[in-house]
Design brief:
This protein is of the alpha/beta class. The chain has a domain of 72 residues. Helices cover 37% and strands 8% of the residues. It has 18 helices and 9 strands. The chain has a 7-stranded parallel β-sheet with strand order 1-2-3-4-5-6-7. Strands 8-9 form a two-stranded parallel sheet. α9 links the parallel β5 and β6. α5 packs parallel to α7. It is globular.
Length: 468
């Protein structure tokens, strides 16, 4: 039977790592203002902050083997949320810091102790720090030195010159301005310490950067930092928030030949940004900058909302039925959306339904008299020109039984009293089925004759297929 002691420690380390390692980046609570003091800790916040720690500590309390395996994993990532926590960590066992690979400094933790912690981390790979303002404005206003910022910066520069950090993240609160003494002091010395660094691969400035204000004292901290980042030989990723306005800071960083991508936006959320605005309008003018932004930033591309062209529809059945009822005036042709030239105002030269006009009386055709109440022949003279559209018919509107009987009787009387028209040969050829056939869907097929449709005579209803 296989026991736990027979497992290799390398395999146990891979199994226990998800239980002990601190997720990165952790959920950083919003710092309270200095004037807001809580009399007693909230039970909700204390339970939520201590519960992950107790869960991570549980594997270390199982046995000595688990303690030996999980101790480097437990100290792999240090999230320093307060200075008292940092002091307790250093006082208990400073040698445990040698297992640390990632350090996260919350706002308000920049102090001498934090600098000493960074100097003890000999194998540090990831550093995330939040730059805050000085705790007292009197120190700067009266010319006193900010000893915490000076000691922290001194240790930070020594760690950066050591060449072990590959990922650097700088954050600041919304109420911290880069014109203040502490942020300006830290960023200026940070830019000097990064000169000639050959290990830094990823730099993230988790705030909106802009060009420094012009002053006679010299270049500002952002100008010095971006100029240094443009010369790092192994830097391949630069991340920052999307600026509101165009500035030269990001353009200066893009001049680094080893840079592969520029990420605009919060890298922790991975939210997409709109490819519009003043910054993107100016960035498109620089080919190198546009290429780097396209490689690293998820951009929501806007699409043009075009309106498709109107397609001309064929003559609908409603217009044909209105013509069939005798609307032969020019106004009726406009109301029915008839094609250009379809109406009764055209010269009558040839009438395919009634035979011939008076101008062709000597050609062997006989003219048929028309009644004043029937205006179909005049409109039918132009409908015959659109005879090629009979293939596009769909379900026709059938007339009522009374109107169909009267129309059928009138058509039979007129056909018996007059001579056959030139189109009578077509009607004779379809005597076997003068009205066409009904398909399974209840539609008239293409074999429906033109004369039966124009005359308004409804086709016979099949007992097996009724029109719906």
């Amino acid at each position: 039977m296989t026991t736990l002691s027979s497992f290799p420690e390398e395999l146990l380390e891979r199994i226990l790592a998800p239980c002990v390692l601190l997720p990165l980046p952790p959920t950083t609570p919003t710092p309270r203002p200095q004037w807001h003091h809580r009399s007693s800790p909230s039970p909700i916040s204390s339970s939520s902050s201590s519960s992950p720690t107790r869960t991570r500590l549980a594997p270390l309390l199982v046995c000595k083997t688990f303690l030996r395996i999980c101790t480097p994993l437990f100290y792999h990532t240090l999230h320093i949320s307060s200075i008292p926590q940092l002091q307790r960590l250093l006082r208990a066992n400073p040698t445990l810091v040698s297992h640390t690979r990632e350090v996260i400094l919350a706002p308000g933790t920049i102090s001498t102790e934090a600098g000493e912690l960074l100097s003890l981390c000999t194998a540090l790979r990831y550093l995330e720090m939040s730059v805050d303002a000085c705790s007292s404005n009197l120190v700067v206003s009266f010319g006193y030195r900010d000893l915490d910022a000076e000691e922290f910066t001194r240790h930070l520069c020594s760690v950066l010159r050591r060449g072990s950090i590959t990922h650097l993240v700088l954050r600041k609160s919304a109420n911290v301005y880069l014109t203040k003494h502490r942020p300006k002091y830290i960023l200026t010395h940070l830019a000097e310490a990064l000169e000639g660094n050959d290990t830094l691969e990823h730099v993230e400035l988790a705030f909106r950067i802009s060009d420094d204000t012009h002053s006679t004292s010299g270049p500002g901290p952002i100008s010095l930092l971006t100029k240094t980042l443009s010369t790092l030989p192994r830097l391949h990723t630069f991340s920052t928030h999307l600026p509101s306005l165009w500035n030269q800071a990001i353009l200066c960083v893009s001049s680094n030949p080893s840079l592969e991508r520029i990420v605009l936006g919060d890298s922790s959320t991975g939210a997409q940004v709109l490819g519009t605005g003043i910054f993107f309008t100016q960035a498109r003018k620089h080919a190198r900058l546009s290429e780097l932004i396209r490689n690293g930033t998820a951009i929501v591309r806007t699409r043009a909302q075009t309106i498709p062209p109107l397609q001309t529809s064929p003559l609908n059945l409603g217009a044909l039925n209105m013509i069939n009822t005798g609307l032969g005036s020019p106004a009726a042709g406009v109301a029915c959306n008839l094609p250009l030239g379809l109406g009764c105002d055209s010269p009558s030269e040839y009438n395919p339904t009634m035979g011939t006009s008076t101008s062709r009386s000597g050609s062997g055709y006989t003219s048929a008299p028309t009644t004043p109440s029937d205006s179909r022949p005049a409109c039918g003279s132009r409908i015959h020109q659109y005879q090629g559209r009979e293939q596009q018919w769909s379900r026709p509107v059938l007339a009522s039984p009374s109107s169909s009987s009267s129309s059928s009787s009138s058509s039979s009387s007129s056909s018996s009293s007059h001579s056959p028209s030139p189109s009578s040969s077509n009607s004779n050829s379809s005597n076997s089925n003068p009205h066409g056939s009904l398909s399974a869907a209840g539609r008239l097929t293409a074999s429906t004759s033109w004369e039966s449709f124009v005359s308004g005579t409804p086709p016979p209803r099949s007992p097996r297929c009724q029109l719906q």
